[in-house]
Backbone:
């Protein structure tokens, strides 16, 4: 399945030298890379907005996206017992409300490849995204 802002998902990841870990569905390293990219996209939107309220809401968003991406990467590397070769795509400006909605939809689709404790963290991130959407759409 492809997501227009995120590209196509794969099905395996490197688990270190000579080790390939195959998962059903999306590639975990691609998902992690996309989270780091999402932080950069939101940072660009934060710098571009002319609204003070959006500037503050997007500042909070890029902070929690970075913290989440970093924490999830460390958790997954700890479970795998190795570091991952992440590639973070270069970011370009995207309209933040549409982008965050799409990110939330993407997370909903990929969270099933994780264990319950990680799903809970992903759902917390989805809550943070929904709160940011509230701030961007209702509190303008």
Residues:
């Amino acid at each position: 399945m492809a997501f227009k802002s995120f590209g196509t998902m794969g099905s395996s990841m490197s688990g270190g030298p000579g080790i390939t870990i195959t998962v059903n569905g999306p590639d975990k390293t691609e998902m992690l890379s996309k989270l780091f990219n999402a932080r950069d996209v939101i940072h660009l939107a934060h710098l571009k907005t002319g609204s003070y309220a959006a500037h503050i809401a997007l500042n909070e968003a890029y902070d929690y996206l970075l913290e989440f991406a970093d924490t999830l990467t460390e958790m997954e590397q700890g479970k795998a017992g190795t570091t991952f070769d992440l590639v973070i795509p270069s970011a370009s400006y995207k309209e933040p409300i549409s982008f965050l909605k799409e990110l939330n939809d993407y997370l909903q689709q990929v969270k099933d490849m994780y264990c319950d404790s990680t799903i809970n963290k992903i759902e917390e991130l989805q809550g943070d995204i929904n709160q940011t959407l509230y701030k961007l759409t209702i509190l303008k």
